[in-house]
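Molecular record:
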Amino acid sequence: MRYRLSLLLLLLCSSLQAAEPLWLREPVFSPDGKQLAFTWQGRVYLSAGDGGPAMPLTDGNYLSQRPLWSPDGKLIAFAANLYGNEDVFVVPSRGGEMVRLTRDSRPDLPQAFSADGKQLLLSSQRLTDPDADHFVAEGYQAGNLYWTPVAGGPLTPAQPLPATLARPHGNQLAYQMPGMDQPFRKHQHSFAVSRLWLFDGKQHRQLTEDRVAASDPVWDEQGKQLYYLSERSGDFNVWQRDLASGQDRQLTHFKGHPVRGLSASRQGDLVWSWQGELYRLDAGSDTPRKLVIQPLFAKVPAEQSWQPGPVDEAIARQDGEEVILVSQGDLYAVDTRRERVRQLTRHPSRAVGTALSG
């Protein structure tokens, strides 16, 4: 009876985990807000903008990150580690052949499409522009900015400055200056935190205050408002800056954990990740709502191959259908009828004196 109850609880917990997966990251709306791309377990997934079933777009044999939609919604750019470091790829949003846009031994990360969708802005840690007054050290959470044709071709330097995130709008560029601290550290109050800056085509000016971390700049469609994340209220939350007046307004009030990965649709709908789950704030609303996402994937059976080592002890059930082995200090259960082996213990202490109850 106790075994059946434990099995029932295990199956129940497994179904709950499948229904509400955690650590969904980097959500980004399609331009019309009807679709959503995000990353989970190293893969890019696609779902409806309101959540629901999600299909994987990329494979699970490599790490995919930083998905971006093209302005017409037909392409998705992302970074993938297929050849030893992050390179930038584009793929049709309906699925298809991936096109590799960068080839360098240092990380390349996509930042934004141009308004016509023909160019892709990316950050790279490759050798800097000759006019730059800095260099990007290896392992630094930033890169110089370059434009590359989506159809393939040479890179063109965009701005000789280090940036973690960069979002262009017309002749303006909102960008996140790299912090000197670990990028996911919370509640850091020093000059090491990241801040947001704006380049208007002529000069650069700082948008957010010193000693308060700010990240993820996102434009509205008209280029008059800037959404971003800030720890100004204690934890990372979503804020809105009116660029004409300089006034800031706090849009979310989460506590205890940071908001991460902000994105917006053309209509002004916002999406982000909080505590590993995705939330949406519709344009004109003050109340965020959690999106229920169900990634569709084939779950690998909870079985492992076992290379037999020296068997120190063995004890069989009376009916002979199960045998417990002690090998190299761990316990193994052998199902003789199904010919399956299941490892029961995984720890450095040695298991001895095995006995079967009942």
